[in-house]
Amino acid sequence: xxxxxxxxxxxxxxxxxxxxxxxxxxxxxxxxxxxxxxxxxxxxxxxxxxxxxxxxxxxxxxxxxxxxxxxxxxxxxxxxxxxxxxxxxxxxxxxxxxxxxxxxxxxxxxxxxxxxxxxxxxxxxxxxxxxxxxxxxxxxxxxxxxxxxxxxxxxxxxxxxxxxxxxxxxxxxxxxxxxxxxxxxxxxxxxxxxxxxxxxxxxxxxxxxxxxxxxxxxxxxxxxxxxxxxxxxxxxxxxxxxxxxxxxxxxxxxxxxxxxxxxxxxxxxxxxxxxxxxxxxxxxxxxxxxxxxxxxxxxxxxxxxxxxxxxxxxxxxxxxxxxxxxxxxxxxxxxxxxxxxxxxxxxxxxxxxxxxxxxxxxxxxxxxxxxxxxxxxxxxxxxxxxxxxxxxxxxxxxxxxxxxxxxxxxxxxxxxxxxxxxxxxxxxxxxxxxxxxxxxxxxxxxxxxxxxxxxxxxxxxxxxxxxxxxxxxxxxxxxxxx
Length: 482
Prior knowledge:
Blueprint: E1 6-10, H1 14-25, E2 30-34, H2 37-46, E3 51-55, H3 63-73, E4 78-83, H4 88-97, E5 101-104, H5 109-128, H6 141-145, H7 157-170, E6 176-179, H8 186-195, E7 204-208, H9 214-222, H10 239-242, E8 247-251, H11 258-270, E9 272-273, E10 283-284, E11 288-293, H12 297-302, H13 308-314, E12 317-320, H14 328-346, H15 357-365, H16 371-385, H17 424-446, H18 451-458, H19 462-471, H20 476-481
Parallel strand pairs: 1-2, 1-3, 3-4, 4-5, 6-11, 6-12, 7-8, 8-11
Antiparallel strand pairs: 9-10
InterPro entries: AAA+_ATPase (IPR003593), AAA_lid_NorR (IPR058031), CheY-like_superfamily (IPR011006), Homeodomain-like_sf (IPR009057), HTH_Fis (IPR002197), P-loop_NTPase (IPR027417), Sig_transdc_resp-reg_receiver (IPR001789), Sigma_54_int (IPR002078)
Domain Response regulatory: 6-120
Protein name: Sigma-54 dependent transcriptional regulator
């Protein structure tokens, strides 16, 4: 270390407190010990500590009391909370209050060393960046840009709070469970967490649990050994092994088969992985889990689509993204942003038109069932069809344009009349095939390729959609590009 860092160790267990203190002293830290919460609060009021390692449950003032006092007085300090009984509520509350990370008891000396070393690195990065604390009070466009999309840029306080929480939790290894409707940006938040975490240079592995057929899910997630099943000509590494050291994003977790959820829970508990067909432990993986669903998790548990124990294991820090219709400030902001973005892409050199007050009111009043994804598509469509030299009015926007069937002047769908030259049964089959292809393409685009979401939109189960695709020799990728 270039300088000596001060550390406050607070725990009412004399043996543990002394062990931690002596271990940190051996690495050159200036360590102060305290066994009671109220005395620790007094210490924090008198002097600043670079790092605080505090037991969450203390006699007198609690670890949360010390955390709040320390962060309020010295925002650059890093507070690590030790606890043998972590709960979802306490974890979430502590992270929101500014805790750097949790140290679950019992812990090893190596775990302590790594966590404190990360706290030191974070302090040095903050100072190098000239920041009072590595937590911004608003969004950072350059950082958002780094995850490949502008969708995190926000004006609403609700979304700014979410980004702030995501930035705080990013510095930890805590599991995150993100909920929200389709199109609200759950994967963007997950990417944002990974991009701002110490794992940013390690693997980022997104998994759409709804897009992998049930028969392949176990092998995809856990890998398999040679000869595990017909066609397994060689051993294969699963996605969990691929993500080891980095972050695994489990999108639409409630669509994962319950049997696979049970096996995943075992990996979460001990980090030990057994490939399909193996009789031994094949790997020990160390993964940061981020999960998401557009369902109500409690309802999914009641419907036996989501294991309760897995949900609470992953839900250390819950993040809920409200729908776009509840964030009118973001509708205004994103509308103007996407107008500039798509105008530059599709009509370079032409002056960018303005959105009239009527157009903005029209956009804000729409319900946006497809959320940000729908808004983006509507604005892009408007850019393509807009007349040059005219500001955009409500008539510019076609909220039903994407994926609609062609309409004739009398309001009826356009039909390929060449089919009428075929016999009845052939024409009917051809029309049905065309309809099924176009319908599947439409609902898959609306569901962003998520088969479970598309099935819910269609009012059928996933197997029905797969059966149609197999019958018509259709591939999901081709339908999305149609």
